[in-house]
Write a structure and sequence with these properties.
Elements lengths: L22 H11 L4 E5 L2 E4 H17 L7 E5 L4 H12 L3 E4 L6 H11 L1 E7 L3 H10 L6 E5 L9 E2 L16 H19 L4 H4 L5 E11 L5 E7 L3 H12 L8 E2 L2 E2 L2 E11 L1
Parallel strand pairs: 3-4, 3-5, 5-6, 7-12
Antiparallel strand pairs: 1-2, 8-9, 8-12, 10-11
Length: about 270
């Protein structure tokens, strides 16, 4: 018995009724069945399935034109960007084998992986070019051809402070990335404690206890404070929080993948009303 039908004679697997599915066939079908559905979203860049399939096909064609044959290995040293996702389909579409290399690995390990995997080409994000070039020099043979993958300029949106690669630099802060992050948080907290009129809550006749204000703002691509918003138990407290945050000094802008970006910052303010 093949399934739940009482008589399935003649329904054995054949080319007419059974075709194995692969990620590539799924993508091809999606480009026809759901051409306008969102396939990929990254920052301001969005591709539907038809566009995504075309980009993957273009990558596969380019690799074939460079002499890539079925079974050849292509490595990638890419972060989580559209190029990495496209490589996961475009490389197999050219008949090649993809070998993704962790961007956090050291030069010796990357060189070993390139040698051991026998990569003919390595697709490299701009920020990891130095790593790839050093690794190639350490390869036993000629090493793979290095192809730089440049990210298009318009993909970066505002990045939350919690995950920004290079935090904005508050005037006077120095040190490592971790130290700059801690220093900025400390400086902002001190600024608010010094400038905020905590007596305002008592003047407004608010009941005793701990009061909280939640502020969100952006340190934009030029280092200026913008888009300040606050939520507070009274409108006057909300206005005071916005006023104080707008007094923050201009900073060195934060960077994501080496380029200035807007950084979203959340700031809780708590004080006690006697």
């Amino acid at each position: 018995m093949m399934g739940w039908m009482s008589n399935e004679q003649g329904l054995e697997k054949t080319k007419a009724n059974y075709v194995p599915l692969t990620p590539l066939s799924h993508l091809k079908r999606a480009s026809v069945a759901f051409p306008n559905r969102l396939a990929l979203s990254y920052g301001t860049k969005k591709y539907n399935y038809l566009q995504y399939h075309k980009r993957v096909t273009l990558l596969a064609s380019s690799l074939t034109a460079r002499g890539i044959n079925p079974g050849d290995v292509i490595a990638t040293i890419l972060p989580n960007i559209p190029a990495q996702v496209e490589a996961h389909f475009g490389i197999p579409a050219a008949g090649a084998v993809i070998n993704t290399i962790n961007t956090r690995l050291d030069v010796k390990t990357v060189s070993y992986i390139l040698d051991h995997g026998g990569a003919k080409i390595v697709l490299v994000d701009t920020q990891f070019l130095s790593l790839a070039k050093q690794a190639k020099k350490m390869c036993k043979g000629l090493g793979p051809e290095i192809i730089e993958v440049e990210e298009e300029e318009d993909v970066m949106e505002d990045v939350p402070f919690a995950i920004i690669e290079d935090v904005p630099v508050f005037p006077g802060c120095k040190g490592s990335k971790a130290q700059l992050r801690a220093c900025l948080q400390e400086k902002i907290t001190k600024h608010v404690n010094r400038k905020f009129n905590a007596d305002l809550a008592s003047d407004l006749g608010l009941s005793p206890g701990v009061k909280r204000i939640f502020v969100v703002f952006k340190i934009d691509k030029t280092g200026n404070i913008t888009d300040v918003m606050a939520r507070a138990p009274h409108k006057r407290l909300q206005e005071e929080a916005i006023r104080v945050v707008n007094l923050l000094p201009k900073m060195t802008p934060g960077k994501q993948r080496g380029r200035p970006v807007g950084v979203k910052y959340s700031l809780p303010i708590a004080f006690k009303v006697e």
